[in-house]
């Protein structure tokens, strides 16, 4: 039996490409100062879990000038800045990683743990602008990183991956380190029964057998 009720286009199912389009629009919004990083993380989680166009559009309705039209329309991701001026910035646990990130550090510390983060991109571009500060990046177990684009003056870059490509996700670093330091390393895990020991130090239980 065919229903006489009009079909609501908001109930149309969405594709992965449409979800990623909305994630890029949200990243553009954070670049314009319309969303903070916590709001971006929350909305990105909802976008990646959305099943219908109505659910996607609800994430953009309060962002003036940024609407979800054609899923194939190109949206240039905006750079998201994390700024530390004589202060500390730390991200750990579940946070959503933008595809284009600027770390601006002046006599401060920036500590980013990507091991439990949501990274909906194959490649993450990070520009480093460090003067007298320290930046530490802890990448996921299978990630790779290219630090050849970072210029160093009276400072140091420590790359403990020694793997320019081939991992997933792939991090591409560029920028400058002046009288400061940049450390890039990857998390390693050792299983002892159901106990997972992470290096750097962290304990967790494997619940997959529950």
Automatic annotation (TrEMBL):
Domain Cell wall-active antibiotics response LiaF-like C-terminal: 95-158
Domain (DUF1707): residue spans on this chain: 12-64
Protein name (record): Uncharacterized protein
Phylogenetic lineage: Bacteria, Bacillati, Actinomycetota, Actinomycetes, Pseudonocardiales
């Amino acid at each position: 039996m065919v229903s006489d009720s009009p079909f609501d286009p908001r109930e149309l199912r969405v594709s992965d490409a449409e979800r990623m389009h909305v994630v890029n629009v949200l990243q553009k919004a954070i670049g314009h100062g319309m969303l903070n990083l916590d709001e971006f993380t929350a909305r990105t989680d909802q976008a990646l879990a959305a099943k219908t166009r109505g659910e996607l559009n609800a994430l953009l309705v309060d962002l003036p000038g940024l609407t979800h039209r054609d899923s194939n329309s190109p949206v240039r991701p905006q750079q998201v800045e994390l700024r530390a001026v004589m202060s500390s910035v730390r991200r750990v646990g579940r946070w959503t990683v933008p595809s284009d990130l600027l770390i601006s550090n002046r006599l401060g510390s920036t500590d980013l743990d990507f091991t439990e983060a949501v990274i909906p991109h194959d490649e993450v571009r990070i520009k480093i602008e460090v003067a007298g500060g320290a930046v530490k990046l802890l990448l996921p177990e299978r990630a790779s990183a290219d630090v050849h684009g970072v210029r160093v003056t009276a400072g140091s870059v420590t790359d403990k991956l020694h793997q320019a490509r081939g991992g997933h996700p792939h991090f591409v670093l560029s920028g400058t380190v002046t009288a400061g330091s940049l450390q890039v390393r990857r998390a390693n895990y050792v299983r002892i029964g159901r106990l997972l020991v992470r290096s750097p130090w962290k304990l967790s239980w494997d619940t997959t057998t529950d």
